[in-house]
Design goal:
- With 185 residues, the protein is α+β, with helices and mostly antiparallel strands.
- It folds into two domains: 118 residues, Outer membrane lipoprotein wza fold like (Roll), CATH 3.10.560; 33 residues.
- Strands 1, 2, 3, 4, 5 and 6 form a six-stranded mixed beta sheet that branches.
Length: 185
């Protein structure tokens, strides 16, 4: 009967060297927990559409035909979003459209990157695009953006006073002019 000798596996010096190097790798190279959670928060803001299209949620508020929350394709620009929402209402101020961007979802450690969790506010003048064709003024939106179309100053005054009040003020002014004219005769 032959006995087979079981050989012990040899640990080569190369394996030992590699093990020591792996232990010595600084922790900075491996993803930190906060970096992973930041990445996961950003990834959670995107959705997969019917045709494997990546979608993102965008909020639209203010003087727009159909305000609300929209799932739009990634890389949607501001003009396309306004079109999805039916266009601006009469009296919308297109020279100061605001985009409120939640920077903590997209920035580095702890989400603040020195901004102390403040949202970034981007002001866009769409009139420059509409009048001069400057497409560089039309930004591409990011997941979680909120777009706000505000009323013009004249529209704010009209809403504050109401249509009837505006007519009343004009009629009162005309009456004062007529009375002053008659008294001066």
């Amino acid at each position: 009967m032959k006995l087979k000798m079981i050989q012990k596996p040899k640990f080569s010096r190369l394996y030992l060297f590699i093990l020591i190097i792996l232990i010595q790798i600084p922790a900075k190279i491996w993803p930190q927990e906060s970096d992973v959670s930041s990445f996961m928060n950003r990834a959670a803001q995107y959705y997969l559409g019917d045709k494997d299209e990546i979608l993102m949620k965008i909020n639209v508020w203010g003087f727009i035909q159909r305000p609300g929350q929209y799932l739009v394709p990634r890389n949607t620009d501001l003009i396309s979003l306004i079109s999805f929402a039916g266009g601006p209402k009469d009296g919308a101020n297109l020279s100061t459209i605001r985009i409120i961007r939640d920077v903590k979802s997209f920035q580095g450690k702890n989400g603040n990157n020195g901004n102390h969790d403040k949202a970034q506010i981007i002001s866009v003048d769409i009139n420059r695009y509409l009048e001069k064709g400057e497409s560089k003024v039309v930004p591409v939106l990011q997941a979680g953006d909120t777009v706000l179309l505000q009323p013009t100053f004249g529209n704010k005054v009209e809403r504050f006073l109401g249509f009837g009040s505006v007519l009343g003020i004009i009629a009162a002014g005309a009456s004062v002019v007529i009375i002053i004219d008659r008294l001066s005769r």
